[in-house]
Amino acid sequence: MINMVSNKFIERRTLTNIGCMSESLSPPSNEVKIKLRHRDWEVEITCLESKVKQVVEDVLSGIDTSTTLMQGLNAQIAEFQKEINSLKLQINTDVAYQEGVKNLIEPPRREMSKGGATCRGLLEKLWYEGYFGAEKLLGEVHEELSRLGYNYDRTAVSHSLTDMVREGILTRVGTMRNYRYLQKRPYSESPL
């Protein structure tokens, strides 16, 4: 829309210049050159002395019209920006809400550090993956850790499993030296 106003202004000026030129078959001494500054605009006008007032009025009305249009457009742009920011805020709120609901249903996975994995951390990872969904003997758990490339002493594995039983993460069934470890609750109910 701004370009249309500018083009309108340019057309007016061109028509005025053409009008001035057609009448300027007389000596060029009647021709006047004016530089006009109005707000952010700078215009150079060349026409006959007798047409100066009309041409300047036409130019100023074109400039004022475009300025008014610009102010209206700027107000609309500011309003659209407010609406966009409001929509962004609403989208971010919706996404945060959905993430919160997702985390209630399925808590985010805790990443294990590759270099410093502890026996307890590895057992928690197995628990999270559902390894303890079926009863497992201490020997089976120890072998699984070895298969994953971690060689912990059987007593370290046993102590970590006992701690997880005390915390209510796992349960154990059977008799001493023959305990079988089983998942007591799913990972989503974990206080971790």
- Counting H and I runs of at least 4 residues, what is the number of helices? 5
- In terms of per-residue confidence, which ranges show pLDDT below 50 for 5 or more consecutive residues? 1-24
Q: What average pLDDT do the residues reach?
A: 75
Question: How many β-strand stretches?
Answer: 5
Major beta sheet, strand line-up = 3-5-4
Number of domains: 2
Shape: rod-shaped
Q: Radius of gyration, rounded?
A: 41 Å
The largest β sheet comes out as: 3 strands, antiparallel
Structural class: alpha+beta
Q: End-to-end distance, in Å?
A: 60 Å
What pattern of helices and strands is seen along the backbone? Answer: HEEHHEHHEE
Specify the helix fraction band.
55-70%
Strand content: 5-15%
